[in-house]
Amino acid sequence: MLLPAKSEVARELRRYRAWERMMLASPADRAVRAAFEDSGHTLCALMGKRCAREAADAAERYLRAGLAAYAEEQRKRPRTATAARRGPPAADRHSPAGSGTPSGAA
User: Fold this and answer.
1) pTM, two decimal places
2) 3-class SS string, the chain
3) What residues pair up with 95 in beta bridges, in sequence order?
4) What is the C-alpha to C-alpha distance for residues 21 and 44, in angstroms, rounded to an integer?
5) What string of pLDDT tens digits covers the 106 residues of the chain?
6) Region of 26 on the Ramachandran plot (φ > 0 left; ψ -120 to 50 alpha; else beta)
7) Which residue among 69, 77, 103, 106 has the highest number of C-beta atoms inside a 10 angstrom radius?
């Protein structure tokens, strides 16, 4: 597992939190919202997460824990979110061609 430098994580987490405060103070400001979302995306890429909140939490855990402790924690975490499947169960799916009976047969 390749992890970023703690100084880089700390800098991006501070940036994310600063934009978060600014966005909460003026939610209608599109420029602030765009900068906040950009900082969240950067933090996601840095921490290998899909959600900015998860990335911020992971960054905080990484900064609190030592490198080895964080890596071990990540290995032990269940990966249920990545295994989630979207859509109805296979038994409930229908073919786009219809019911499977030949046309004309009823």
Assistant:
1) 0.64
2) CCCCCHHHHHHHHHHHHHHHHHHHHCCCCHHHHHHHHHHHHHHHHHHCCCCHHHHHHHHHHHHHCCHHHHHHHHHHCCCHHHHCCCCCCHHHCCECCECCCCCCCC
3) 98
4) 18
5) 677 889 999 999 999 999 999 999 999 999 999 999 999 999 999 999 999 999 999 999 999 886 666 667 667 666 655 445 555 555 555 555 655 555 555 5
6) beta
7) 69
Residue type, 102: P
Q: At what angle do helices 30-47 and 52-64 cross, to 10 degrees?
A: 50
The one-letter amino acid code at 80 reads T
